[in-house]
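Entry for flavin-adenine dinucleotide complex. Fields follow.
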Amino acid sequence: MPSDIDIAIIGAGAAGLAAGIFAAETNPNLSIALLDSAKTIGAKILVSGGGRCNVTNQRITASDFHGNRKLIDRILRRFDEQATVRWFSSLGVPLKTEATGKLFPMSNKARTVLDGLLRRCETLGVLLLTHHLVRDITRDDKGFLIQHSQGTLRAKRVILATGGRSLPKTGSDGSGWGLAQQLGHTVTTPYPALVPLLLEPSFFHTTLSGISHDVTLTTTVAGKTSDRCTGSLLWTHFGISGPVVLDASRVWVRATAQGEAVRLHLHCLPHLSNQDVEKWLMQAASLPGRKLVPTLLGERLPTRVATRLADIQEPALSDTPVNLLSKEARRNLVRMLTNFELPVIGSRGWNFAEVTAGGVPLEEISARSMGSRQMPGLYVIGEMLDCDGRIGGFNFQWAWATGYLAGCHAALNIMTQPAAKDGE
Ligand SMILES: Cc1cc2nc3c(=O)[nH]c(=O)nc-3n(C[C@H](O)[C@H](O)[C@H](O)COP(=O)(O)OP(=O)(O)OC[C@H]3O[C@@H](n4cnc5c(N)ncnc54)[C@H](O)[C@@H]3O)c2cc1C
C-alpha cells in the first residue's frame, strides 16, 4: 500500500463508497483509498431495509429531513432521486418503485447494492483497506497525516464518512466525530433516531405482539403538539415499532434527553375525526341486533386489538352490546380510540436505532462541495453530519448525495488547487 495518496476516505459505508466512486470517476489518475475499521465492508447496507436495502424514495424533499433544511435542500438538489436511479442502473443495479414510494433493487437483495458499489470501486482502482481503524488525523503544510491501526498514511485530501452511532456493531461507533473535532469541527449532541420505543412492562402490548395496523401518533412536548405522523404501528413484546413509531421516536427521544415533559398519544382510526368515531358508534347503536363492542371495533381494527381495547375500558366492554353503551361509556371509548396515551418508558437505544440525530453542524460545511469551512482540504459527509431523514430511503439518499458532492469536489480540487483552499 502506498504511504502517500491523493484522497483518503475514512469510513467505507454508503457515503464513503459513493465518494470513492465519484472521486475516481472525476479523475481516474488519482490514488484514492477507503479506510474502514470493520473486517468486512458494508454490514449496514446488508441489514438495511430488512435485507432489501431501501436505496431511495420516489420523492425526496428537504422536509423529509431534520436539520438545517435550507442547506439540506441545496445539497439534495445537486444529486436527486432520479440521479440515484440512473447511477444505480449504471452500476448494474436496476431499482423498482413500490406502492409506498420506496425504491429497492429489482433483486430484492441488499447484497446486490453492496456488490454493485464494490465492483465499481474495484474497476476504478479505489483501494479498500479493511481493519484500518483511524485514530488520529493532523494537518501540516504537506496535507493530512492519518494514524490508523496498521500504521500511517499521508493524503492530500481527507473525506470523513464515519457515520453516526446507530448499530455500533457494524463499526459506526461515533469515534469519527473525535476526528472531526480534532480538525476544528464541533459536534451537536447525538441521540438515537428511527428507534423502537419501550412501553411500561405491565401494559397490554405483549398480548398484541406481532400485530400491525395504521394509526396516527401525536407527540406533545411541554403540552404543545410537536409532531404528528400516520402509518403502520407494530406491537411487539417490548413495546411498539413499525414505520410510524420509528418516525415519531426522534421527537420523543430528543425531548426526553432534554428533560422535557413528553407524551405520546395513539389515534387508532387515523382517517376519522373524534366526531366521525362518535357518529359511527351512534349509528351502529341505532341498528337492529345486539352487536358487541369488540365485534364492532373489529370491523375497523385487528380483532385482538379491538378485544383488548374493549377489555381495558372501565368497566370492561367485552360483553357489552353497542346499543347498551351509556353516553359516558361511548365518550370514553371515543377518547380511547382517538387519543390514548401510550406509557412510553424509553427507546431501544443505539443497538436498534436506524439513524443518528445530531452530529457535525451543516453550517460548518459548504453545501456546494461538502468541504469543511474550518479545515481546507477536509470534507465531511453522510450520517456523521447533523441531518437525519425519516424512514423510507431518505438516509441513503443523503449518503449518496453528500458522497457525490465530496467525491467530485475533492477530485476537482486537487486538479485545480495544488494547495487546498479554505471553505472549498
Ligand atoms: C438496521 C438499519 C436499517 C436501515 N435501513 C435503511 C434503509 O432501508 N434505507 C435508508 O435510507 N436508510 C437505512 N438505514 C440508515 C442508513 O443505513 C444509514 O443512514 C447510512 O448507511 C449511513 O451511511 P454512512 O456512510 O454515513 O455511515 P455508515 O454506513 O455508518 O458507515 C460508516 C463507516 O465508517 C466506519 N468507521 C467508523 N469509525 C471509523 C474510524 N474511526 N476509522 C475507520 N472507519 C470507521 C464504520 O466501520 C462504517 O463502515 C438503516 C440503518 C440501520 C441501522
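NOTE: The chain has a mean pLDDT of 95.
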